Amino acid sequence: xxxxxxxxxxxxxxxxxxxxxxxxxxxxxxxxxxxxxxxxxxxxxxxxxxxxxxxxxxxxxxxxxxxxxxxxxxxxxxxxxxxxxxxxxxxxxxxxxxxxxxxxxxxxxxxxxxxxxxxxxxxxxxxxxxxxxxxxxxxxxxxxxxxxxxxxxxxxxxxxxxxxxxxxxxxxxxxxxxxxxxxxxxxxxxxxxxxxxxxxxxxxxxxxxxxxxxxxxxxxxxxxxxxxxxxxxxxxxxxxxxxxxxxxxxxxxxxxxxxxxxxxxxxxxxxxxxxxxxxxxxxxxxxxxxxxxxxxxxxxxxxxxxxxxxxxxxxxxxxxxxxxxxxxxxxxxxxxxxxxxxxxxxxxxxxxxxxxxxxxxxxxxxxxxxxxxxxxxxxxxxxxxxxxxxx
Length: 391
Known about the structure:
By secondary structure, the chain is mainly beta. The protein has one helix at about 1-35, and strands at about 50, 75-80, 90, 95, 100-105, 115-120, 130, 135-140, 145-150, 155-160, 170, 175-180, 185-190, 195-200, 210, 215, 225-230, 235-240, 250, 255-260, 265-270, 275-280, 290-295, 295-300, 305-310, 315-320, 330-335, 335-340, 345-350, 355-360, 370-375, 375-380, 385-390. Strands 1-3-4-5-6 form a five-stranded antiparallel sheet, with no helix packed on it. Strand 4 (about 95) and strand 5 (about 100-105) form a beta hairpin. The radius of gyration is 22 Å and the shape is globular.
C-alpha cells in the first residue's frame, strides 16, 4: 500500500506540474496577445496614403509618413461651410467633404481644385474613403455616394433609411457603412448593390473597423459587435455598458474605444470581454473622439478638454494634455508626434512619449475634424469651412 501511495503522490505531482505549465503558457499567450499590442502588429497607413477615416481599416490613426520637425502652413482651401470629417489623401490628391454638400478633390501640393461633386445634402462627420478608383462618402440625407476619383463623376448612390455620420470602409470589393436607421450595410463597391445588412438596436454612428474578415462596430445600443464581412453574420457581441459614439481601434486581439459613460475600454477579442476601463478621476466627461494607438500608447481626446494617453496593457494613465475646450477630434500619430484638434480652435502637436506640446496652430474656429497625414503633409478642416495643409 505504501508503494502504491507513493506512486499516486508522484502522479499527482506530475499532473500538477503539467497543469501549472499549461496555465503559465496560457498566461504568457494572453499577456502577449492582449497586453502588448506591439507596433509591428499595428496597422499603419502607408507614407503616401491616408485613404479613409483613421488612415486604415483597423482605425488605428497611425501614419508611416515622415514630417518636418518645424511645420508651416502651406495652403488653405475655402470649402464654403463647416468641415467635420477627416480628409483622405491618396498620392498627390486630397479628398474632402463639407456641410455645403460638396466633395472636392484638391492638389496636395498647392490646394488647387481638380473637381467638385455635389451630394445634394450636407455632409457631416462621414469621411471620404478611397478604393477601387472611387471615392465614397455618406451624407445627412442618408445617401452613400460613389464618385469616380479621376474626374468626380457619379458612379452610383445607395439610399439608407436615415442620416449617415459613419464613414465608409472599403474592404476589397465591398463597402461597409453605418446608418442612423440602425443598420450596418455591406454593398458591392462596383455597383452599389446591397449584399447584406445587419440590424442593431439603435443608430450606427461609428465607423466599422475591419480585421481578418471581421467588422467590429461600437453602438449607440451600448453593444460592441463582431460581424463577418462575407455574409453579415454576427459572431458575438459584448456589452459596453454605455452609449458609444467613438469608433473602435483594433490591434491584434484587442479593441479600444471610449464611451459616454466617461470611460475608455480595453476589450479582449479572444476572451470576448472588457478587461479594463480608464476614466479621469477628477473630470467625468464622455469620450467622443476615436482613439489612436502606437505601441503600448493609446491616445484619445475627451470632452473634459483634455488629450489622454493610456497604457494599452493596463488601462493606466501615462499622461494628459489640457486644451481650452472639448476635444472631439480623433488624434493622428506620425513621426513620434500626436496631432489633434480642439474646439478651442487650435491644432496641437504633442510628443507621443511625454505629452509635451511641441507645436500649435490657431485656426480661430473649432477643429472637431480629424487630421489626415500622408506624403509629409497634414490636412485638417475646421468648422468655419477652411481646409488647412501643413508640411
